[in-house]
């Protein structure tokens, strides 16, 4: 399998416009077994109540039967089980839990799709990618604001991002690379699956079913085309100065040298997102002066301290004419 995935990776890297019309065969009993072994043993069960421990007792037979249902077109995704966990502010966060067999198939699919999309995703993207994470994203923030001419930060906050993705547009964007009907049919099943919430079956018209193993990859594919590639290929060449993007899933900041560039992008970004069903939060999306000499300017303006911005749960404050930054 690793040899076949390596070949898939090589083909994707060689030709960024190549469409892959036959990749479903890469999901085999062996890859599904590996996917099962990689799942968290203590994870909560889905609507069918099947736990890892129970499934493991006859794992080989269970996976063989699951694979056969996939081959015969009889596999059906099960609804997500909605539970709520308390948040620090007293509210509750909804969590959607998929059935174990759906996790297995999705995990195997993610491995195949990663071989393609990891060749397309840009360096600005850090969330839910192999070998990348929050630490690297925060390090890149430090590198940009301390070593590049950064004067303005545009904080992006997408309202209910995972729930707002337009499914047909997601499929259209995926078809740029993946034209395998079997794969796209599975993805449609997963994103349309619905949720069991306190005994009620709920179905939405948009979104990727947050909580599913496949959802972070699909969300990255969507923003890769909607934001990352557009910003790199269309926006940056039209700007007067340098600009940088740092994104972790739907949490992103854009860094600019000049205010006029930052304002220009801020003005067109809402229209760009609206084309794909996304909305920027009007209060949490902010343009602020930041970077070299920010502390000095703040004092001249009578402010006690310069602007800060939030990223991945940290408040970022820059001091000493841009030579260092502090995260709280």
In short:
With 328 residues, this protein is α+β, with helices and mostly antiparallel strands. It has helices at residues 2-14, 29-38, 52-56, 59-72, 100-117, 134-147, 161-164, 167-174, 181-191, 215-235, 259-274, 294-300, and strands spanning 80-86, 92-97, 152-157, 195-197, 200-202, 243-248, 251-256, 286-289, 309-311, 314-319, 324-327.
Task: Chart the SSEs and their pairings.
Blueprint: H1 2-14, H2 29-38, H3 52-56, H4 59-72, E1 80-86, E2 92-97, H5 100-117, H6 134-147, E3 152-157, H7 161-164, H8 167-174, H9 181-191, E4 195-197, E5 200-202, H10 215-235, E6 243-248, E7 251-256, H11 259-274, E8 286-289, H12 294-300, E9 309-311, E10 314-319, E11 324-327
Parallel strand pairs: 1-4
Antiparallel strand pairs: 1-2, 3-7, 3-8, 4-5, 6-7, 9-10, 10-11
Written overview of the protein:
- With 328 residues, this protein is an alpha+beta fold.
- Helices cover 43% and strands 16% of the residues.
- It is built from twelve helices and eleven strands.
- The strands form three sheets. A four-stranded mixed β-sheet has the order 2-1-4-5, with no helix packed on it. Strands 6-7-3-8 form a four-stranded antiparallel β-sheet, with helices on both faces.
- A hairpin with a 2-residue loop joins strand 9 and strand 10.
- It is globular.
């Amino acid at each position: 399998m690793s040899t076949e995935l390596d070949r898939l990776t090589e083909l994707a890297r060689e030709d960024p416009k190549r469409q892959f019309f036959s990749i479903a065969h890469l999901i085999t009993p062996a890859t599904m077994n590996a996917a099962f072994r990689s799942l968290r043993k203590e994870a909560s069960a889905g609507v069918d109540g099947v736990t890892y421990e129970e499934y493991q007792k006859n794992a080989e037979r269970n996976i063989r039967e699951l694979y056969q249902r996939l081959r015969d077109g009889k596999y059906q995704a099960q609804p997500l089980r909605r539970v709520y966990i308390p948040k620090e502010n007293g509210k509750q966060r909804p969590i959607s839990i998929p059935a174990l067999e759906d996790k297995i198939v999705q995990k195997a699919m993610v491995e195949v799709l990663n071989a393609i999309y990891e060749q397309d995703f840009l360096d600005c993207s850090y969330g839910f990618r192999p070998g990348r994470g929050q630490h690297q994203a925060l390090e890149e923030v430090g590198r940009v604001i301390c070593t590049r001419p950064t004067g303005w930060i545009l904080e992006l906050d997408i309202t209910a991002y995972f729930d707002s993705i337009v499914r047909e547009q997601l499929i259209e964007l995926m078809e740029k690379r993946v034209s395998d009907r079997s794969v796209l049919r599975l993805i449609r099943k997963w994103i349309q699956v619905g949720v069991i919430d306190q005994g009620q079956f709920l179905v939405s018209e948009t979104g990727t079913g947050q909580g599913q193993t496949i959802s972070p990859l699909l969300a990255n594919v969507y923003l890769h085309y909607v934001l990352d590639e557009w910003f790199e290929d269309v926006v940056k060449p039209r700007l007067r100065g340098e600009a940088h993007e740092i994104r972790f899933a739907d949490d992103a900041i854009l860094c600019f040298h000049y205010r006029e560039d930052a304002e220009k992008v801020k003005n067109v970004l809402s229209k760009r997102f609206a084309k794909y069903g996304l909305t920027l939060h009007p209060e949490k999306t902010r343009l602020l002066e930041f970077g070299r000499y920010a502390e000095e300017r703040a004092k001249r303006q009578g402010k006690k301290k310069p602007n800060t911005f939030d990223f991945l749960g940290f408040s970022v404050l820059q001091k000493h004419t841009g030579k260092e930054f502090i995260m709280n």
